[in-house]
Amino acid sequence: MNIDCPLPADIEDTIRLGHGSGGELSQNLFRNYIYPYIKNPWLDQAHDSALLTIKGSQLVFTTDSFVITPLFFPGGDIGELAVYGTVNDLAMSGARPMYLSCSLILEEGLPLNTLKRIMASMGRAAAQTGVHLVTGDTKVVERGKGDGLYINTAGIGVLEHEQEIGPGAIRAGDRILLSGDIGRHGMAVMASREGLSFDTSLHSDCAPLHEPVRDLLAAGIQVHCLRDLTRGGLATALVELANARGVSVEVQESAVPIDESVEGACELLGLDPLYVANEGRFVVFVPEEEEKAALDILRCHSVSAGSQRIGLVTATGRTGVILKNSLGCERLLDLLQGEQLPRIC
Amino acid sequence: MKFLHEYRQRPGIERIAREIVRITTRHWTIMEVCGGQTHAIVKYGLQQFLPSQIRLVHGPGCPVCVTPLDIIDQAIAIAARPDVIFCTFGDMLRVPGSEGDLLGVRARGGDVRMVYSPLHALDIARRNPNRKVVFFAVGFETTAPANAMAAFLAHEQGLNNFFLLVSQFLVPPAIAAISSAADTRIDGYLAAGHVCAVTGFESYQQLADTFRVPIVVTGFEPLDILQGILMCVRQLERDKYQVQNQYARAVEPAGNPHAQHMLQQVFEVSSQTWRGVGNIPASGLRLRAAYSVLNAAPLFDEKRSCPDDTRGCISGEIMLGKRTPPDCPHFGESCQPQHPLGAPMVSSEGACAAYYRYRAQVITSDATDRATHEH
User: Fold this and answer.
1) Considering CB atoms only, which of B107, B116, B349 is closest to A196?
2) What keywords would UniProt list here (chain B) (predicted)?
């Protein structure tokens, strides 16, 4: 067969930024370079955290790293992001977050006052979410080898209920609830980093999510699956869950809330808000009969006050996420392909 | 959102579509010149609202797709130099050259930076006086004024470390080339609204007269595009060939004189090679002699590798409206956004990327087409 266009050289001989996008390239990285060497049943859970049973206690364990530029952005900073991000990963497994570790990789030349502000922020975030930073580590790298500061955290939480929460519990007919508008974190950070100015100010949605999850479980709502929306945005999260469970999902585009300033910025840059990162939003899969009660609980919390149903699981055995737009057309959602790149014109 | 949501509402679209159905008596092939319009057509499944006699084909209006391979290769070679900071719009980062792309250069240590404006690249040059800063000045008439402004300011301020790698294209000569081809089958054009916002559309009348085709300056929202099609079909059914302006909310007949002045001060018209299409006389821009010191191409006399881009790449036929992406045997198989064989699968305005990304709509539209036709 004649390949018409010149073929590029092997484009995956090195790590690219797109490998950290949470999309297709990240999945390739896990599938081909990581999982084959450390495969085990806990990783197979395909969830944000690992569920561990130790002497009868059910613990949830997770880790995350934070490499954001700038360190301080509209609506948050790397310190609270590190605490909230790990708390959220634990909460998405239905666990009560308890203990965190904190490992700091500091770049030579980082102002100590900056470190002090970030640690104060971490302390406040920990107090707010009821977790304790119980162990940690510091390393210093040469100037130019880190963006000022990287933070790695690990977190332990405890399961205090009998529900199975994860992709494996998703069922046909489940309603998909979204906790609020999407895309604010990604666009706020991009605008701040690139010095873009828009008519309206964009603020990150960075926030802890454990309280609405706690109240859903306390009320006895059957929660089949939870997933916070981070890199890759809403679309990537839904595609990952649909793939993990082998279900098809239908989402109404008009039901997905998007702040006008986010929508305008995305239009200007040619980005799709469905793929823009969030740090304080999550989706909940619940049976149809639980939808109203779940929404009532979610809407009592400021962080999830804008909750609404955005779609449902239509069938098992067929995998895919279909977005229905206002004109009645359907669009198949994929994992994010590499990074989202702003267009020329 | 003003000027957005009101152009995406189903009732208005159905009203226009009914009118198109009412007046259409024959088969018409209409080309939307701009890749942004292609994406809107496929994303919103607009073909499903049209009668089966109306066929939309896609034009060469994607700046990423038409940038020739040797310029991409030159960009990659320049970007790999240790003394260079290479600045580019995001779209260009993943376009495959003969041996990889700009993201690959960055992964191997090249200082490749994505910018949102050429003025940002200029600022990088000011702050890095010991490095050569090269801006990849690509695009149509839409990007040319800002690129010219960057060149003008660099020249005026005596910056000696700022350069442009120029690959600018002009749309009207491409329309002329498509229309004058012996096997052309384009009955009418939807011209790109944002291009005309800069250039105006008075010069398009000569094209319409010469080739006896209606040209409708059209916006990018679903309602814009259907209105543009309606205006085009009305002319075709009446055997008219005029230039009309659907996008009056953004486009003046004479365009933006300030932008044109800046463009003309820095650039002059030149012949240009369009990737997949070939050389079109007077279809590009190059720096005028007074600004040639800013030209990155001769300064970095890198080996121009593999200019052979003629081994049957069907992207050329797609951009000339002769074939559609699903006609390609590689589409969606060996050619996907993650592993593109050609630029139209990479660019956010590329026709192949549009068909791939919105393939569910394309399938739905095709099925609706067939059902309508059979009915």
Assistant:
1) B116
2) Iron, Metal-binding
* Tens-digit pLDDT profile for residues B57-68: 999 888 888 998
Please give the Cα distance from A89 to B159 (Å, whole number): 50
pTM, to two decimals? 0.85
Tens-place pLDDT, residues B60-97: 888 888 998 889 999 999 999 999 999 999 889 988 88
Question: Which B residues 203-262 touch A at CB under 8 Å?
Answer: 222
Beta-sheet strands, E only, within A67-205: 72-73, 76-77, 95-107, 132-141, 149-159, 175-178
Give the side-chain half-sphere CA count within 13 A for B108. Answer: 16
Q: List b or e across A134-144, with b for residues whose CB sees 16 or more CB atoms inside 10 angstroms.
A: eeeeeeeeeee
pLDDT level of residue B335 (50, 70, 90 thresholds): confident
3-state secondary structure of B216: strand
Cβ within 8 Å, pair A343-B360: no
Here the tokens at position A32 are 């081909």
Write down the pLDDT at residue A328: 81
Distance from CA of B239 to the nearest CA of A (A): 32
pLDDT over 60 at A156, yes or no: yes
> Is residue B346 over pLDDT 80?
no
Contact A327 B13 (CB under 8 A): yes
Say how many Å lie between the first and final Cα of chain A, rounded. Answer: 36
Tell me the three state secondary structure of residue B84. strand
Chain A contact for B117 (CB, 8 A cutoff): no
Nearest residue to A277 (alpha-carbon basis) of A201, A182, A207: A182
The rounded mean pLDDT for chain B is 88
Distance of CA A14 to the CA centre of its chain: 25
**What confidence score (pLDDT) does residue B3 get?**
63
CA distance B209 to B323: 26
Residue B121: strand, helix, or coil: helix
Q: What is the ipTM of this complex?
A: 0.78
How many CB atoms are located within 10 Å of the residue A307 CB? 25
* Shortest alpha-carbon distance between residue A344 and chain B (Å): 6
Smallest Cβ distance to B142: which of A269, A330, A345? A345
Q: What percent of chain A has pLDDT over 70?
A: 95
Q: What residue in B sits closest to A264 (Cα-Cα)?
A: B1
